[in-house]
Amino acid sequence: MSLIEYVEPANVGDFFVGIGSLILACVLAYILYRIYIKVAHWIDVMVNREAKYELLEETMLDKIAKDKGINLNEELAKRKIFDIKHKSFRKKIEEKVYEEMFGKSKEKK
Question: How many domains does one find in the chain?
Fold first, then answer.
């Protein structure tokens, strides 16, 4: 083993390749970030537009039903009352546990 260790001189080309790769990675990250922001805004606009259309449809349908003499909320309540109710052992247990913890609840109108 020699007493003097050989130190390889720094290669300037490798330094410039590293800097170039860093710049390229930063540019690609910026481009992907800009695309991501545009897609996120587009999705936000589409969701808001769909929500507005749904609200408009619901209000117009309610208005038309009232003009015809139909109360949609009342009809929904009737249909929920006349639904077939399935008995469930788990629901009975949950009701008993609730009654034991909080007492009997008031009857719903």
Answer: 1
> Looking at residue 104, what DSSP letter applies?
P
Dist. CA 105–CA 98, nearest whole Å:
9
Q: Within 10 A of 72 (CB to CB), how many other CB atoms are there?
A: 13
Q: DSSP 3-state assignment of 75? A: helix
**How far from chain centre, in Å, is Cα 95?**
32
- 17: closest CA among 25, 9, 29? 25
Note whether residue 2 is domain-resident.
no
pLDDT in tens, 47-104: 999 999 998 998 898 899 889 888 887 887 787 766 666 678 888 888 888 888 888 7
Tell me the whole-structure pTM to 2 decimals.
0.47
Domain assignment of residue 95, given as a range = 12-102
Question: 105 — alpha (psi -120 to 50), left (phi > 0) or beta?
Answer: beta
